[in-house]
Amino acid sequence: MTTALTNLLDLDPAQLVAYCGELGEKPFRAKQLQRWIHQFGASDFSEMTDLAKSLRDKLATRAFVAAPAIISDHTSTDGTRKWLVDVGQGNAVETVFIPEENRGTLCISTQAGCAVNCRFCSTGKQGFNRNLTVGEIIGQLWMAEFELRKTKGIEPGPKGERQITNVVMMGMGEPLLNFEPTVTALKLMLDDNAYGLSRRRVTLSTSGVVPMMDKLSQECPVALAVSLHASNDVLRDGLIPLNKKYPLRELMAACKRYLEFAPRDFVTFEYCMLDGVNDTDAHARELVALVKTGDTAVSCKFNLIPFNPFPESGLKRSHNPRIKAFAQILMDAGIVTTIRKTRGDDIDAACGQLAGEVKDRTRVQERMQKMTEYQQKFGKDFGRIVEISG
Ligand code: SAH
Ligand code: SF4
Q1: Ligand 2 centroid distance, CA of 153 (Å)
Q2: Cα–chain-centroid distance for residue 78?
Q3: Could you report the per-residue pLDDT of 284-311, keeping only the tens digit for each?
Q4: Probe residue for ligand 2, chosen from 107, 108, 117, 358 as the CB with the greatest number of ligand atoms within 8 Å
């Protein structure tokens, strides 16, 4: 009888301790192992020199460390880097790194496709394919961190300088509809023996799955971004179908409850600027009333996102002067407001375009075929990162 191999990227800190326990090892071994994997980027047990040879041999026969395989890797002229990674059965998701002066932010996907089907989102237009596993979610951070180090010529090992300082769960998919794996991955991001990121530097973005926002506040309160995109329920119903289930009143109340546990004292509202749809002065004033008065008042900042058009959407990006005028109304009301820079446009890495290449199923299939051939040829590399050009 053969036992399935365990991908150690699938295990959170407690599960790794339990796993080591099953192998007859003490908890501190799990910590060492976790550091090798998540801090030093090791996937080969023979490199883990401070583990007993007997343990390394045991691990080699029962476990492996594998992030999703890289299908493509592009860097934009502004430094934004985008990877398309294979998550099996013809599905691929994207991971995007955005370098800034004092930080490096990684945007991670949590699902292949998305069931929420927002009108302005190309991921939604793909429909829902499947939930990513813990290993596929944390594996994006693992892969990106060590690929970035490799590009900079930073040696693998303990002294490597951290490249990713912030994580946003804002890639493909609705993280709160893939709750358990997302939370496990978040816990690894925060763990001192893994990535050691502070809760304030990890942001989860949701379209507003109210009960799961409460659950997140109890299980792993990280910084929260909420995709608002509308100033009233009629408008939001038409843009985000989930609003019919969890309307603005309930959403705002959930934001307020979340803030009692959150690492920051405000919620970031994302607002996608759609020409003639949600971008008038009247909408801005309605938003001010929503977040500043009555039961729906909540401590917040606004992040205005210029819409990234895609052909089937039938929607257009608001013009820059309109976005600025809209921002001014919010700012005049005392709300901190930023207009998101569009980055990585030349490689389709901007928000909501993350599915760009995935939409082209034939090319994905072609790449998958290439990958299968590659893996058959280099069997020993199966389960490790493989790069396929073209
Ligand atoms: N599902 C989650 C997180 C992923 S989407 C959510 O909806 O919050 C990340 C952000 O990109 C969301 O604010 C989303 O509304 C926005 N977005 C999606 N499509 C977009 C597009 N075409 N242009 C600009 N922003 C978009
Ligand atoms: Fe899903 Fe977010 Fe896209 Fe809406 S915006 S379809 S919730 S990924």
Answers
A1: 36
A2: 20
A3: 999 999 999 999 999 999 999 999 998 8
A4: 117
SS3 assignment, position 321: helix
CA 270 to ligand 1: nearest atom:
13
Q: What separation in angstroms does the CA of 312 have from each of 114, 124, 348? A: 16, 12, 16
* Token pair listed for 298: 């909540």
Closest protein CA for atom 6 of ligand 2: 124
- Kindly report the backbone phi and psi dihedral angles of residue 4, in degrees, each rounded to the nearest multiple of 5, phi listed first: -65, 145
Active site residue 94: yes
Residue 387's SS3 state is strand
Contact 135, 67 (CB under 8 A): yes
Neighbours of 216 (CB within 10 A): 24
Give helix then strand counts, H and E, for the chain: 13, 14
Burial class (CB in 10 A: 0-12, 13-18, 19+), 97: buried
Query: Buried b vs exposed e over 66-83: b needs ≥16 C-beta within 10 Å?
Result: bbbbbbbbbbbeeebbbb
**CA gap 104, 166 in Å, rounded:** 6
Q: Are 86 and 68 in contact (CB under 8 A)?
A: yes
The domains located in the chain, with CATH, are 6-64 (1.10.150.530), 70-359 (3.20.20.70)
pTM of the model as a whole: 0.90
pLDDT digits (tens, 9 = 90+) for 235-266: 999 999 999 999 999 999 999 999 999 999 99
CA-closest candidate to residue 318, choices 356, 269, 280: 280
d(CA 361, CA 57): 41
| Cβ atoms of residues 171 and 94 within 8 Å | yes
Q: Which of 214, 210, 252, 245 is nearest to 231 (CA)?
A: 252
Q: Which residues contact 243 (CB under 8 A, 6 or more apart)?
A: 208, 230, 233, 236, 237, 251
Distance from C-alpha of 183 to C-alpha of 208, rounded to nearest angstrom: 16
- Annotated active-site residue in 20, 25, 94, 272: 94
Active-site residue 351, yes or no?
yes
